[in-house]
Write a structure and sequence with these properties.
By secondary structure, the protein is of the alpha+beta class. The protein is built from eight helices and twelve strands.
């Protein structure tokens, strides 16, 4: 339940900061591969699915009938696109399951929980991590001064459109985009729209989240409110694991720079995680290049 992932301060809800540990491979893979697919512009089985491009991105023509889609398979094994958040993720999970099977980490016909455990073990065994040096941490600190601010605050509101199932993505996105278009024309209607449309408990306060600091929300939400130059209703929907958000930034309070010594450990942890994400992307890309995958294109995923 979404409400269980929220914490409340003074009666105003704020989205809990979910930090993705590099050891939590299954959750991590869902987020990493989703991001990787979006970056690469790889398509799903339908033209609209979490912002993916239509079939023309694969070099084919877009189908006039969204139900006229190609079956997904990995090395001849059929994959149900509804078994994961996106068809790409369903294919990646099957790809990893098959590789775990060849390494005797899981038996054929194993239940989903056992498969998930085997995939975690597979990633732990096959993807190495490298610790960043102090010089790398210092360079990151110098290049990202805006991140290391103490006392920086943003007052924001949001409207959350929760996505109940993969099949509902297109309808929910269309509803969210229509609401966003209306609010960009008339921002005064934000509070009423939040009360009427938002799936978040903050809807009872007109979507108000109060004052937020960096790291208090999920990364996608954090980037939107702290790095976007706009004030007021942001021009684009923001996607997180909670769903699609319309966000309004009401006020920004500047902070002061924190010394390197205070944040060095945090930087090292973040660089380790980022390096691990890149390694997992490359690992999946390599497996996909050697596999016969039909229905989605994983072989050309970017490892950036």
């Amino acid at each position: 339940m979404l409400a269980n992932r929220l914490r409340f301060r003074g009666g105003i809800s704020t989205i809990a900061g979910i930090r993705i540990g590099w050891r939590r491979c299954i959750i991590f893979l869902v987020l990493v591969v989703t991001d990787m697919v979006k970056r690469a512009g790889v398509t799903g089985m339908r033209p609209v699915r979490f912002g993916f491009a239509g079939p023309e991105a694969r070099g084919g023509a877009a189908s006039e009938n969204e139900d006229d889609v190609q079956e997904i398979s990995v090395n001849g094994i059929s994959v149900d696109p509804a078994s994961a958040q996106t068809p790409e993720l369903a294919a990646v999970r099957e790809l990893l399951r098959q590789h775990a099977l060849t390494l005797d980490l899981v038996a054929e016909g194993a239940d989903p929980e056992t498969v998930n455990s085997a995939i975690r073990e597979l990633i732990a065994q096959e993807v190495a991590m490298a610790e960043p040096t102090e010089a790398e941490c210092r360079r990151y600190y110098d290049d990202h001064q805006e991140i290391f601010q103490s006392g920086e605050r943003v007052s924001a509101r949001h409207i959350l459109f929760q996505i109940p199932s993969p099949a509902a993505v297109a309808d929910v996105r269309a509803k969210a985009e229509a609401a966003l278009a209306d609010l960009l024309e008339d921002a005064e209607g934000f509070e009423a729209a939040a009360r009427r449309l938002s799936s978040c408990p903050s809807s009872q306060q007109g979507g108000r989240l109060g004052q937020l600091s960096r790291g208090q929300t999920v990364p996608e939400f954090d980037r939107a409110i702290f790095e976007a130059p706009e004030m007021g209703v942001l021009p684009d929907l923001v996607q997180t694991q909670f769903g699609l958000h319309i966000i309004a930034v009401d006020e920004r309070t500047a902070g002061t720079s924190m010394p390197f010594e205070q944040v060095e450990e945090q930087i090292a942890e973040n660089l380790t995680r980022l390096g691990y994400e890149q390694a997992v992307r490359r690992y999946i890309q390599d497996l996909a290049a050697e596999a016969k995958i039909v229905g989605v294109n994983l072989a050309t995923l970017s490892a950036q």
